[in-house]
Amino acid sequence: MDSIYTPRLKALRNSCNTHGIDNLIIFGFENIRYLCGFSGNAAYLIVTPLQNYLITDYRYYERAKFESHHCEVVCRDREAQSLGKCFAQFLATGKTGFESAFVTVQMWQDIASALTQQELYPVQGLVEALRMVKDDWEIKSIKKAAALADTALCEVLKQVRLGVTERDLATELDYTMKKLGSDGVSFDTILLFGRRSALPHGKPDDTKLAHQDFILIDFGAVINGYRSDMTRTYVFGEPSKQQQHMFDTVLAAQQAALGKAKAGISCQTLNEISQQVLFSNGYEEYAGKGLGHGLGLFLHEAPFINQSTQYTLCRGNVITIEPGVYLPSLGGVRIEDDILITEQGYECLTHAPKSFVLS
């Protein structure tokens, strides 16, 4: 495991040098895990030119010593020592950057008051930029999470029946993933019937499945902290012409984007390819605003596949492709897969069938 963290820390130090930063204080839990392996949520990582310090407290100290790599683990007495004074012990002289997106103004003011000898600079996105391109270990973890989710969905679809509730089916899906070995759920499972499927991020309730209802299922598993994210949409019984048209259009939009997905294409272009299919079929007013997002330790991470992201995809990006159409009076259709960008195209990581009709 040590070997996967060495190049990450080296790349981060190179990035810090490029930005003229001597030290970096890291607050983001996912960023800490990426750099040293610690999976807890009460720690801070200081990266200096020569050493790394993981600061936690008695609750996580032994766990941190077991999980973390290439770090000196420091147990801070929270009652006897402020965070800022603890930081001051380990910072080298020079310019110190800090992840401003993860701290409140008050929290940082309290810390900065103890760091008067440091030149402090807010920074954003240094670690996240590294995380956009996945290494082999990360890809293997995401593939395992995706395969586990495929299996769980297959099992739970056997329980779809007239009158089952959204809540019950979602609970069964979550339980099945955990039983199969998932660390947890990638996010709160979205499982909606009928018109409620038009809520892109709706919450399952006690709505019962009726004949000819849409069934929208958006969910994911977690392996080693890495997440999968897949959506399938079904209809229970014979679909109406409009339902079938919605499904066929969304599937065509996804296939059009997948057909162009490869290293060298921009996020904006990929988004436009999908939108053209949705818009030309009369769904401009009802289409989702973005095509997808990066995937890894965090569910929604860079790069984002939308009209405003100026980023060219490269080998090693793992992203979702998830066009959707949402008609409040009828329901919604979304089809989502996780893909790994390669030089010549992509590798699909999610493999659950995209059949539409359940009965």
UniProtKB/TrEMBL annotation:
Domain Creatinase N-terminal: 8-133
Keyword Oxidoreductase: no
InterPro entries: Creatin/AminoP/Spt16_N, Creatinase/aminopeptidase-like, Creatinase_N, Pept_M24, Pept_M24_MAP, Peptidase_M24B
GO molecular function terms noted in the UniProt entry: aminopeptidase activity; metalloexopeptidase activity
Residues covered by the Peptidase M24 domain: 141-343
Keywords on record: Aminopeptidase, Hydrolase, Protease
PANTHER family: AMINOPEPTIDASE (PTHR46112), AMINOPEPTIDASE YPDF (PTHR46112:SF3)
Protein name listed in UniProt: Aminopeptidase P family protein
